[in-house]
Amino acid sequence: MDDKSYPHLLAPLDLGFTQLRNRVLMGSMHTGLEESRDGFKKMAAFYAARARGGVGLIVTGGFSPNFRGRLHPLSAEFSTARAARAHRVVTDAVHDEGGKIALQLLHAGRYAMHPFAVSASAIKSPISKYTPTEMSTRQIKKTIEAFVKSAELAREAGYDGVELMGSEGYLINQFICKRSNHRYDEWGGSYENRIRFPLELVKAVRARVGRDFIIIFRLSMLDLVEQGSTKEEVVQLAKLLEQAGVTILNTGIGWHEARIPTIATQVPRAAFTWVTEKLKSEVSIPLVTCNRINMPDVAEQILATNQADMVSMARPFLADPDFVRKAEENRAEDINTCIGCNQACLDHIFVGKRASCLVNPQACYETELVLTPSASQRKIAIVGAGPAGMATAVAAAERGFQVDLYEKNDYLGGQFNLAMQIPGKEEFRETIRYFTRRLEQTGVNVILGHAVQAEELQGYDEVVIATGVKPRIPGIPGIDNEKVIDYQTLIRDKVQLGQRVAVIGAGGIGVDVSTMLTEPEHQDLDDWLKDWGIDKSIEHAGGLYPYSEYVSQRQVWLMQRRPGKVGRGPGKTTGWIHKKVLEKRGVELLSGVSYDKIDEQGLHITVEGQSRILEVDNIVLCAGQTSVEELSEKLQAMNLSVHVIGGAEVAGEVDAKRVIRQGVELAAKL
């Protein structure tokens, strides 16, 4: 074992009064367990698994210091001795595994989804229903005292520290920026007055908890909103926070209301480390950088080039609790990599569901979705080696079943092989790599290039059909015209299309294809930042500047039959990004479309009672999928135990989150 593979990442960090075992911070992420029944037991198992996996310092999801600071009326609050006692099970579990854990204290301010919202000023946020009440001086002081009391209780609960959430546009951030602070008293007006709230808060917390307790301050270093902070202001606040008693400064990127992607899979890896680097020479306390760091080599490079002292990863620890241990053992290729999709984590949290992970459905279900060793070594055949088939095969093999995995193509991965070719979805390649490794390690017998027949499955105890989907061909007159191509053929065979393209179907696949067809060539990180109007000097307020947008040379029409919004694609937290990209590139979005016919002139359509001819070179079909399942009836007639999962069961919109979870749950039950 070579434990020097990532020397900077795995180096201890001395904080003076305590030492962290490495430079890895598990960033704060709400899981939904904070409010659920038996939530603390489940949280204890969740965080303990990450501590066992080697994380240097864990930060919990956000807890409010008082009622008005809750995100939702029923959101988690940490303000009583009873709460402190309830949290003991979590801190004990982490300490038993040799880890350290800090409690994040988060006051929602104007982001609160209830009528008791308060903020620096009575200015409604563009993403909230309620206009907050402007806080009185008395309320401000009481709120500071609430934070102080919560920090003191966190210490009693066994936490090693607290993180004060001063970024992402929450209350502390709302005081700092002109955008949301229009006060004229000592808490507003000049920058010195606007930063009084965070500084008084830190000083009061430090005075109460003593010198040997970690205080992390999550500082918004790049607001990405109008009337945000400039670089000079961020540096000034950072220095004053250090003097006030902060132990570690963590980077925050972008307010929740910012219209720029910061963590979605389209964002290049480590796209914002340059922001943290700007502070490196200005303060002497450790700096943490964050956002789209998902593999040890990326983290090592950041630390080796002195851009930061620690790296924060949140979603990568949903994907793989053993991330750090695998890095220590020089087994990076065994890491289940976060693909930045947000589909099972943030998308769940924003609609009040429990978080999990598309590539690891056991995340946040450690006590429920358990793969117990099988009493007997039964034989299982799995037909189809897409995401559903691979996940089922690995989980069944982990339980001790003898597994044969059949795939008619000569490669593994199914639809993920198409997804990874979409610009911004290259990370899907990592999931195929991970499952391929696990199939080898768990002893699954993989049979590629073989379309298995029903008769060959006679001797198995269980048969799982996971044969996936094929494109649906709509019944439009002229559909067999040579201009027409389905999305699978287009992506798989890398077909070159003309300059004018119609895309039929505006679900997730139609959006992806339209993005691919309008993608600029050879875009590096600087191009990406410029494309989204991010000012690398952070001289403009919020790090934004007016910019010329890239418009594609290719004209694309993206259409759907149903009326309403077009181009959002799946995902609550990422849908707006897809739509904005398409609009920036000049894609014409049409809804309520009837497809009349296809001929040499092009695509004849009717929109809002008006006939149109789109004179296009090509037409790409993204009009849904149909199942390619043909075996189950024959197998049932042979009295075999058959399970149909994934796209073979429900073709619909391709949903990797659903099919991988379904596969693991089936394997757990067999």
Automatic annotation (TrEMBL):
Enzyme class: oxidoreductase
Cofactor(s) needed: [4Fe-4S] cluster; FMN
GO biological process annotation, one example: fatty acid beta-oxidation, unsaturated, even number, reductase/isomerase pathway
Keyword Flavoprotein: yes
Membrane-crossing segments per the record: none
Keywords attached to this entry: Flavoprotein, FMN, Iron, Iron-sulfur, Metal-binding, Oxidoreductase
Entry protein name: 2,4-dienoyl-CoA reductase
Name of the gene encoding the protein in the UniProt record: fadH
